[in-house]
Each structure stands twice: as C-alpha cells, then as structure tokens.
Amino acid sequence: KQEVTQIPAALSVPEGENLVLNCSFTDSAIYNLQWFRQDPGKGLTSLLLIQSSQREQTSGRLNASLDKSSGRSTLYIAASQPGDSATYLCAVRRASGGSYIPTFGRGTSLIVHP
Amino acid sequence: ETGVTQTPRHLVMGMTNKKSLKCEQHLGHNAMYWYKQSAKKPLELMFVYSLEERVENNSVPSRFSPECPNSSHLFLHLHTLQPEDSALYLCASSQEEVNNEQFFGPGTRLTVL
After folding, report:
1. With 0-12 CB in 10 A as exposed, 13-18 as middle and 19+ as buried, what is A97?
2. How far, rounded to the nearest angstrom, does the alpha carbon of residue A24 sit from its chain's CA centroid?
C-alpha cells in the first residue's frame, strides 16, 4: 500500500526566505506526482505535475523535483511571500486497471509573515 | 462557468435525511473523483469514475452512493449519515491517458447533526 509522508507538517517563516517542502512515498512504481496548494476551507489548486519520466518542473517561483528511485520529491519556493501562506499537498498516482489512483500526504501548513 | 463546480457549498443535515451533492466539470475530462477531507487526516479517495464507469470504490460505506450519468456530471447521494461523516467533500476531474493532472472543485462543507 502506497504511503505518502510530508515533512515538515508546519512551517512559519519571515517573508523573503527560500523554502523546501518534502514529500516521500513508499512505492516507487508511480505514474506521476502532483503538488497542490489549499487555502483554508477551499478546494485544491494544482501547482506542478511531474510525470514519472521527468526530473523536475518549474512555474514562476516554484520548482518541484522528483527522484523516483529514492521515493522523494521536493517543492522549492523562492523568495516567499505572505500570499504563499497555505497548506501544500503532494499526491502520487499509480496505475490500476486502466485508471490512475492518487494517494495524498497530510500536507505542510505554511505561514509566511511580513 | 469554468473548471469544476460543486453545489451546494454548505450543507447541514440530520442523520435521517437524504441529500445529494453535485459536481460538474467544464474541462472536457473523462474521469471524475470524490474525496473526503476530515480534520487532521489525509485527503481520502472515495470513488473514481472513468468514462462514466466506476473503477474504484475505496471501501466506502453504502450510505454514500455515487452516480455518474455522463462524463461532465457526478453526484454523491447521502442517506442515514453519521456525525463522523461531517467533512469537506471535494470533487475532481482529470483527462485519463494524457497527463492525468487533477483539477478540484471548491468542495461542499457537510455537517451531520
């Protein structure tokens, strides 16, 4: 059974810092990995999607890397801003009978204070 | 409307009520999902529909009954729920056999009294 762990569970930093959020998974036979952000009481917003054959993806100040063999992904946030405050979730997907089943971590709760 | 929409956004129901949650996606996707998000627990996958067929039922109690009449609409029918079923219910969609990137709706906050 796939298990996804996110470290740290919570993080509070001053504005401007560069951040690294970690995601690890137990079964390396994944199809892809996706990072999301979730604001309180809201749905999830997709940030980056990395296919199993890729090593990293970048979008603006965000960079996500994937090391499938070691079961790890990191989300790097450059020059953090108060608007980055949210919970960050990673999800890995496995193939199952023609569909792709996701497993989520518990998330990292990030607060960026001015 | 664009993206994934869910109605109602908030729902309060008694344990003997019957209600339904609705999800609609305007992205042309062919797979839809129901998730449950409880406090301090990981997001739990409940059901997956691909091409309007249920391909995954993640050991969900029968008091939750999904329905997918077409690739754009997904329902979750609720009956005789328990207070511990109170949670945020999220719907998502993706295009299978492409990159499978999931897009989520805003969720329905359900409270069972």
Report:
1. exposed
2. 10
- Which residues of chain A fall below pLDDT 70? 95-100
Question: Cβ atoms within 10 A of the Cβ of A45, count?
Answer: 13
pLDDT bracket for residue B59 (50, 70, 90) = confident
Distance (Å, rounded) from C-alpha A10 to C-alpha A23? 13
Taking 80 as the threshold, does the pLDDT of residue B98 lie above it?
A: no
Residue A74 C-beta-side C-alpha neighbours within 13 Å: 8
Distance from CA of B2 to the nearest CA of A (A): 14
- Encoded tokens for A106: 């518990």
Which residue is listed with tokens 């990292």?
Answer: A108
Burial-class residue B1 by CB neighbours within 10 Å (0-12, 13-18, 19+): exposed
Q: Which of A4, A93, A105 sits opposite B100 (nearest CB)?
A: A93
User: What is the spatial distance between Cα B85 and Cα A110, in angstroms, rounded to a whole number?
Assistant: 27
Which residue, among A71, A62, A44, has the nearest Cα to B101 in the 3D structure?
A: A44
Best of A2, A26, A31, A44 to mutate (most B CBs within 10 Å, chain B): A44
Strand partners, A44: A38
